[in-house]
Design brief:
This protein has five helices and two strands, in the order ββααααα. The protein is globular. It has 112 residues and is mainly alpha-helical.
């Protein structure tokens, strides 16, 4: 994981959660049925599903029901005034950009 990745820290009950997206967690979400290209069609559930996906990287053992419970217990904004769903969306965009940036060292040539 890169050092500056956007993260969300939550204390819920007696548990601390460190939440973020990785390439692997996004792929798992897709394999489990989440349709990133159809988020506009699922406007009522997309926020919940994205939040639930944040648990995959470090807390995949937390049941989905508990993840959704935590989501609904959160305030709409954090202490800095960041909107919850906007922040999750930024976290998602950052992870997608990171996935799409090829930083290998093998050169290639396209031929048309």
């Amino acid at each position: 994981m890169k050092d500056k990745r956007m993260q969300m820290h939550i204390n819920y009950g007696d548990t601390e959660y460190n939440l973020y997206f990785t390439a692997s967690s996004l792929k798992k979400m897709e394999q489990r049925g989440f349709k990133f290209g159809k988020m506009d069609d699922a406007i009522l559930t997309a926020g919940e599903e994205l939040f639930a996906g944040l648990f995959i990287a470090e807390h995949d053992n937390v049941p989905r029901k508990k993840r959704i419970e935590i989501y609904h217990a959160l305030t709409a904004e954090d202490e800095n005034g960041e909107n919850l769903n906007d922040f999750i969306g930024e976290m998602l965009n950052e992870a997608i950009e990171e996935m799409n940036s090829h930083q290998g060292n093998v050169s290639w040539t396209g031929i048309r």
